[in-house]
């Protein structure tokens, strides 16, 4: 048995705090009766409705995917393009991507049906680091890298300080391989930050998410997270 607000958050209905507000406002029914008591506990056989819409209580699922380029980071696409959910068809639960990677960006993407953990992983408050490796046009100067490390403003949007370093350069082709570690997840953030220092991105991959890496995976491969990995993610986001 679990507390009702935890079940709602886990199912992705809302954060736990917002789920508590839903309950207190009388918008949640359990087995046909309105429930406003926050201490109410429910089980897998209880029928839960939010605003008249039933939710399903599934076993938690946590999946790591090596997203290839040319795949949409959503559960469905109105244009019929392949989505990340299409690549994890062997998972019986309904899982959703945690955040997103651009269509032309590859790399590590998490999918889960644990709404509360997903919300925390994407919230900058918990500062879960993500490391990207980019091939860029141009070779960043030390001053440019310092800008990224100190926190750069692009189009009036302030980005938090990042860990930035050059992995390799090709002076003849005027390109570089750059590693950038951030804990935010703003729209097109890495591309905008590198473009702002005069080094537009040619190719981008997310190689690390917190302590997780792509080791052992090829593009399109997916695996279930190990129990200790889930436990560590929960610890990182204050859910342990």
Automatic annotation (TrEMBL):
In terms of PROSITE patterns, this protein maps to: PSI_RSU, S4
Keyword entries, A-Z: Isomerase, RNA-binding
Signal peptide span per the entry?
A: none
Q: According to the UniProt entry, what is the EC number of this protein?
A: 5.4.99.-
Q: Where is the RNA-binding S4 domain?
A: 2-61
Q: Which NCBIfam families match?
A: pseudouridine synthase
- Name of the protein in its database record: Pseudouridine synthase
* Species: Levilactobacillus parabrevis ATCC 53295
């Amino acid at each position: 048995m679990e507390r009702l607000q935890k079940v709602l958050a886990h199912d992705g209905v809302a954060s736990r705090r917002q789920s508590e507000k839903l309950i207190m406002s009388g918008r949640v029914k359990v087995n046909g009766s309105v429930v406003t008591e926050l201490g109410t506990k429910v089980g897998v056989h209880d029928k839960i409705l939010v605003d008249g819409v039933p939710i399903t209580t599934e076993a938690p699922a946590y999946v790591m995917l090596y997203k290839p380029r040319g795949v949409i980071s959503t559960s469905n696409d109105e244009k019929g393009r392949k989505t990340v959910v299409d690549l994890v068809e062997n998972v019986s639960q309904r899982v959703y991507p945690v955040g997103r990677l651009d269509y032309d960006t590859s790399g590590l993407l998490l999918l889960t049906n644990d709404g509360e953990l997903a919300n925390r992983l994407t919230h900058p408050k918990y500062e879960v680091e993500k490391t990207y490796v980019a091939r860029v046009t141009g070779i960043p100067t030390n001053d440019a890298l310092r800008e990224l490390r100190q926190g750069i403003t692009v189009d009036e949007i302030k980005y938090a300080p990042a860990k930035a370093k050059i992995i390799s350069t090709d002076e003849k082709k005027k390109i570089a391989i750059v590693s950038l570690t951030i804990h935010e997840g703003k729209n097109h953030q890495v591309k905008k930050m590198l473009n702002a220092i005069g080094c537009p991105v040619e190719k981008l991959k997310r190689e690390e998410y917190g302590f997780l890496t792509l080791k052992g995976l090829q593009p399109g491969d997916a695996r279930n997270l190990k129990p200790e990995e889930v436990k560590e993610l929960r610890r990182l986001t204050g859910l342990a």
